[in-house]
Write a structure and sequence with these properties.
heterodimer; A: mainly alpha; B: 5-stranded antiparallel beta sheet; disordered N terminus; disordered C terminus
């Protein structure tokens, strides 16, 4: 419960006498503005009355007014009667404003007897009721109001006023039943929103108390009027709050929401009261200077008193805002309005009670987690984890955030969030799930050791978890992708043996066979694969299984069986890489088996099947070669030329350049007749291409004509000149561009070489041609002293062509460039990378020398000497480095003052007969003499 | 809690060009007045009754009631504590028309009477600002009513939106003292959205201060943003903005039901029909007998008749928390059956300010 005691409605209570006194001065001033005509003897009395009223001394005004009545009260004179009516009225008002209600009634009763249909009779009737009401004699007040209602025909405005007064009488005694019809009448007929709103608010208060909230809902539009009574009624708001509590406790969340939302927050209620008080006080001031509106002034002053009471009442009520907002948020949440709930909880987190901050942020997160998009959920989740590490809901939040990132395949984030989660909460309530996601994300990020560690923890520490089968499978996969087939194998086998119903069972049995294959256990692999294809005839891995079976057969030398298995695989579901692999392995084997016609048929079928990303030019190449093998050189050359004609227009078709190169080669071995015919065909095709403005093909042909033995030097030079133009770049294939790079370099046309290289990088980015281009750009940058540009290119080469020799060369150059830039750390890292790959062993002396130079530059000569020594000790066969290494080590020893050792080092170098011819010998001799002189 | 912001007042003044344009088309435009009689009050001083003639920047030009027309003096707007315009505003008539949802009539009644005061609404505690705001709101409702008639109602809707803009811009002058002055400036921007001047509206809103929760203009600010975003065909962002309005301003009938209706429409647009149903049901139940209630009931009926919520809700949403057992489809169907209108909505005697209890 938000509140335990009922707050009484202060509004209908009697008016505060002080307020009435304030009213008196103003009202009398208004009345006095209409002055009575002066008479000589009465003049003084009248003047006294008027003077007293003018300063608000209504007590002083009463005697002269009474004197006038005594003199002229019974006068039969019509004009005097009219004046007396006004005097009686003013005297009554004086008593009313002095809270002398009995005297007031006496005067007004007399007034009504004398002036039943006087100008103010209807008003006086109301005032008589008011006096009883102000005295707290509500029954008498009600009688008076009813009486005056019967006696006079009131306009709607005044009639409404009487109903309001009558309702106030009932409400003051908490008699809601008789008040209700009056309130309903006011609600229906009042000519202004203010009184309608008042009635609605009072009715709502009653209905809230009875928990008949359905009756409140139709009045909601009126209750939500800004600046209205409802917006500052403490009673209505407290009744609504209590009703909301009870409905909420009954788990009627929708009704609770609707009711709670009608409650103004404590602060707002206070602000509304203060605002309205100021405005009503302003209204009172206005009415005070507006003559002839005593009733309006009376009511305005009553309202001021009411609001003052509201404010006093409100002071005693503790601030209920955080709890109210919390319950509204909860109600939104329970009625599935998650956006609204989430925002409210978030506000409560930011501004609510300290002790509920954690819960509120968690709820906000929870709501956000169920709606799309996920960005808000992630933001809230991170905010929770940052603010409440190890909080009550930390584990749930961290896992959910991790799952969302996993759903979005944002694996680095999964690793970041869940990695941190395990640090913060090592005994995470969902540790298996966390480990699983970490393992999976590591796998996807190709961090296989990490994946192995996480999955390994699951199968090792939580063997009976629901994730065991999945983890074993992925553990196997992590080992498999790390080429640790021995470690992978038992995991796949366990999935097959222990978790036969797992979704991974089928895949695991396949992977188990691939592990055997990887371990060169070909017969085990074959046995498992044959069992696999039998057990899972509908498997999507069937094609791949037959490809590996083909590989197995190939590995054991059963080429016919290999061909059969590859050909069985080809119509099955295979990704394009595997499909091409199987097709070309099969073709190669057919050629190896000298089944040339079958090879031709095989590749012809391959071309006819033409899938996206099929390597048709390569198939053409193999068919041409098979024709060659069949001893049909003319067919080979024609076949190649036809293919060139068919595919040569597409500059992106890389295989065409390969065919061209082969074609040139074959023209040389095809015999003079066939060779010359072939070149003529090529020239014919070039003519046709030029006529048809097929510049791509034309450039390709012009490039190969450079190799035509019958072409004159002048013709070649003219053709080269024509080809080496920047406007040819958009039509040049990768092969042509590569030729242009080389030819432009040879022609010392650095700009064109650079433009061609850039075109290759831009348009043939992923190809080996780009490597040539990058090498050139790097070299040009080096030549121009633009070392930063060179570093960019070399870094790309080492990353994109990571396993190539060019990458090793690039690392070597990078080491040097970084050293020259003074970035020893990066330089050393480059050398280390180079030293980490066995394939690049040939360059290890250079890398070691580079590391030695780095130490040397830092004046750490002993470390440097050790590196130089390793070169001639371990790689003595590398003669281009041995001499340099000896000299460099001797220099280091010299710097260390070890002249004897330095000389001995050089002696050792000079004593070896196999190195006597090395260019460093003379320098070594000179240096040796120098050291000996220092001894 | 802050309730005034000078920047808003500046924006309101900047919008004066459009105000003037819209006013020239007002149907109830009276002859250009020679001035407006006003009673000016200042603490400790006698009331002064003067005729306000014109204003130039912060200077208000007036003449005494007994002076010839050409004899003008001036004062600064902050020179007085309160101002009572002596204009005959048919507030009761306008209110009566409004209760019968004759919005245009209600607006025109007030508009004509109040027009002479427009230039002086920054006079503190004046008695014309609130009726001007009311007239603006009535025009807005009239425009919304006309817009429901589709293309046929479009010209009329645009006309009323134009007048509403003019009145809100004028009422926006009161941002220096009235708690809802700032809201009026924002409402003016909302009118621009409705007549398709999205860039202008966006600029106006960007110039406005972003209110804090509890500020009088908070709800309308986010509602205006939501309407702008919705007009820019960004329903998801519009929904987020509408939600800000709904959760922070649910005590103002001039904002709350509009924000709910927009939220419901957005829920429809982002394909969350169950939530759209819930919000329409809420508006239909809580704003019975109003334009919002009628519209919400129609949309609820459409959703139910087309079985848009017949399929179970996303278990991700339905299966969480403590779970209420309410069958909202059944509740909605029951409500639609019980509230089947016996007469056309416009003929309802209950009026726009709520139903009979």
């Amino acid at each position: 419960m938000l509140l335990c005691e009922t707050i009484r409605e202060p509004a209908p209570r009697r008016a505060v006498p002080g307020a009435l006194r304030m009213l008196a001065a103003a009202a009398v001033l208004g009345v006095c503005a209409v002055a009575a005509p002066a008479q000589d003897t009465v003049k003084e009395v009248r003047a006294k009355a008027q003077a007293a009223l003018a300063v608000g001394a209504y007590e002083d005004a009463i005697p002269p007014l009474q004197q006038l009545i005594e003199w002229f009260g019974e006068s039969p004179n019509d004009s005097m009667k009219a004046e007396m009516e006004d005097i009686y009225f003013r005297l009554g008002l004086c008593h009313l404003f002095l809270a002398q209600f009995k005297e007031c009634r006496t005067v007004f009763d007399t007034y009504l007897k004398k002036f039943k249909y006087g100008a103010n009779s209807a008003l006086v009737g109301i005032f008589i009721g008011d006096t009883w009401r102000y005295e707290g004699k509500y029954a008498d007040a009600l009688k008076a109001y009813e009486k005056t209602l019967k006696a006079y025909q009131y306009p709607l405005d005044m009639r409404t006023d009487i109903f309001v007064c009558m309702a106030r009488c009932h409400l003051a005694e908490e008699k809601w039943a008789p008040a209700e019809p009056l309130l309903i009448e006011i609600y229906r007929t009042a000519p202004d929103p203010m009184r309608r709103n008042w009635a609605a608010a009072m009715l709502a208060t009653s209905y809230f108390k009875d928990l008949t909230v359905d009756k409140v809902y139709p009045m909601v539009p009126l209750l939500l009027q800004p600046g209205s009574f409802a917006s500052r009624s403490v009673a209505m708001n407290m009744a609504a709050l209590q009703a909301g509590d009870e409905i909420f406790a009954d788990e009627k969340y929708r009704d609770a929401l609707w009711v709670y939302r009608l409650v103004h927050p404590h602060d707002t209620l206070k602000l509304n009261c203060e605002d309205q008080l100021a405005r009503w006080q302003m209204r009172v001031k206005r009415l005070q200077r507006t003559p002839g509106l005593p009733r309006e002034l009376l009511r305005a002053q009553e309202t001021v008193s009411e609001i003052e009471n509201e404010l006093q009442g409100l002071e005693k009520i503790p601030n209920y805002d955080p709890e109210l907002f919390y319950r509204i948020a909860r109600s939104y949440m329970e009625t599935r309005r998650l956006r609204e709930a989430g925002e409210m909880f978030y506000n409560l987190f930011q501004e609510g009670l300290e002790e509920k901050r954690e819960e509120n942020l968690y709820f906000s997160f929870l709501c956000a987690s169920r709606i799309k998009p996920n960005d808000k959920c992630l933001a809230r989740g991170h905010e929770y984890m940052d603010n409440f590490p190890g909080g009550p809901h930390y584990d749930t939040v961290s896992l959910t955030v991790g799952q969302i990132y996993a759903g979005a395949q944002n694996w680095p984030k999964v690793l970041q969030v869940l990695g941190k989660a395990l640090e913060v909460s090592p005994k995470h309530e969902d540790i298996v799930e966390v480990l699983f996601l970490l393992g999976y994300a590591s796998f996807m990020e190709e961090k296989m050791p990490d994946a192995q560690r996480h999955f390994g923890r699951i199968v090792g520490e939580f063997p009976d978890s629901e994730r065991e089968a999945d983890s074993r499978y992925w553990l196997g996969m992590a080992f498999l992708f790390d080429k640790k087939y021995e470690d992978a194998l038992p995991n796949f086998d366990k999935v097959v043996q222990n978790f036969g119903t797992s979704v991974f069972a089928e895949d695991a049995s396949f992977r188990s066979a691939t592990c055997d294959f990887g371990l060169s256990q070909f017969y085990d692999a074959e046995r498992k694969l044959l069992a696999f294809v039998q057990r899972y005839p509908e498997s999507k891995l069937l094609g791949e299984a037959y490809v590996i079976l083909g590989d197995v057969s190939g590995a054991v030398g059963e080429l016919d069986e290999a061909v059969r298995r590859y050909q069985k695989a080809l119509p099955m579901e295979l990704n394009i890489e595997l499909y091409n692999y199987a097709a070309f392995r099969c073709g190669e084997m057919l050629r190896e088996l000298k089944k040339y016609q079958e090879c031709i048929d095989h590749f012809t079928a391959y071309i006819q099947r033409a899938k996206p990303e099929s390597n048709v030019p390569l198939a053409v190449y193999w068919i041409g070669e098979a024709y060659w093998d069949l001893g049909q050189p003319e067919v080979t050359l024609k076949f190649f030329m036809d293919a060139l004609s068919r595919y040569g227009k597409d500059r992106k078709e890389l295989g065409v350049d390969l065919i061209l190169e082969k074609w040139v080669d074959r023209t040389r071995g095809a015999g003079k007749v066939h060779g010359e015919k072939a070149w003529l065909d090529a020239r014919e095709l070039l003519k046709k291409a030029l006529t048809e403005k097929d510049y791509v093909l034309a450039l390709r042909l012009e490039r190969i004509i450079q190799y035509d033995p019958n072409a004159s030097d002048a013709e070649k030079a003219a053709m080269q000149k024509f080809m080496l133009r920047a406007d040819n770049l958009p039509y040049a294939s990768a092969g042509v561009l590569e030729w242009m790079v080389d030819a432009a370099v040879a022609a010392k046309n650095a700009d064109l070489a650079r433009a061609a290289a850039e075109t290759i990088i831009r348009e043939f980015t992923e190809t080996d041609y780009a490597l040539t281009a990058r090498r050139l750009l790097a070299q040009q940058a080096m030549d121009a002293g633009a070392f930063d540009d060179a570093i960019v290119q070399y870094n790309i080469i080492r990353e994109v062509y990571a396993s190539s020799d060019d990458a090793a060369q690039a690392l070597l150059v990078l080491g040097r460039l970084y050293r020259e830039k003074g970035d020893a750390e990066k330089a050393d890292a480059s050398y280390k990378d180079l030293l980490g790959a066995k394939e690049w062993k040939a360059l290890w002396p250079a890398a070691l020398y580079g590391r030695g130079e780095l130490w040397q530059a830092q004046r750490k000569y002993d470390q440097a000497a050790a590196y130089f020594e390793r070169i001639y000790v371990l790689y003595a066969g590398h003669k281009d480095w041995v001499g340099r290494a000896y000299i460099a080590r001797a220099e280091c020893l010299g710097k260390l003052g070890q002249f004897k050792s330095a000389a001995e080092t050089l002696d050792e170098f000079l004593s070896r007969a196999e190195w006597a011819q090395l260019p460093e010998t003379e320098a070594a001799k000179e240096l040796r003499q120098k050291f000996q002189a220092r001894l | 809690m802050t309730r005034h912001l000078p920047a808003i007042a500046v924006a309101a003044l900047a919008a004066a060009g459009l105000c003037a344009r819209a006013q020239t088309n007002a149907p109830a435009k009276p002859a250009a007045p020679d001035g407006v009689l006003v009673r000016l009050g200042k603490e400790g001083e006698a009331i002064r009754e003067v005729i306000l003639v014109k204003r130039e920047g912060p200077d208000i030009y007036f003449r005494m009631t007994n002076s010839p027309p050409g004899v003008l003096s001036s004062f600064k707007v902050e020179a007085f504590d309160d101002a009572e315009f002596k204009v005959a505003v048919p507030e009761e008539k306008a209110y009566a028309a409004a209760t019968q949802r004759r919005w245009a009539q209600a607006a025109v009644l007030l508009h004509g009477a109040l027009m002479p005061t427009f230039a002086f609404l920054d006079l503190r505690e004046n008695n014309a600002t609130e009726p001007v705001m009311a007239a603006g709101r009535y025009y807005l409702r009239a425009a919304q009513q006309a817009a429901k008639r589709g293309e046929a109602g479009r010209p009329e809707a645009e006309k009323w939106y134009g007048y509403a803009f003019a009145l809100f811009a004028a009422a926006g002058r009161s941002a220096n003292w009235h708690p809802y002055g700032e809201s009026s400036v924002i409402r003016a921007q909302m009118c621009l959205v409705e007549i398709g001047k999205l860039d202008e509206a966006a600029k106006g809103l960007a110039a406005a201060r972003e209110p804090s929760p509890g500020d009088a203009s908070y709800g309308i600010y986010w509602l205006a943003k939501a309407r702008l975003l919705y007009a820019q065909e960004k329903p998801r962002e519009a929904l987020d903005a509408a939600v800000q309005s709904v959760i922070h301003e649910n005590k103002d009938v001039e904002t709350f039901p509009d924000a709910l209706m927009l939220a419901a429409q957005c829920y429809e647009d982002v394909n969350e029909p169950h939530r759209a149903r819930d919000v329409y049901y809420e508006v239909a139940r809580l704003f019975t007998g109003t334009d919002w209630g009628d519209e919400a009931r129609l949309r609820l009926k459409f959703i139910m008749e087309n079985g848009m919520t017949a399929a179970g809700e996303d278990p991700n949403i339905a299966g969480i928390f403590f779970g209420t057992e309410e069958d909202m489809n059944a509740l909605s169907t029951k409500y639609l059956k019980e509230s089947e209108p016996k007469a056309a909505p416009d003929a309802s005697p209950a009026g726009a300010q709520g139903e009979k209890p």
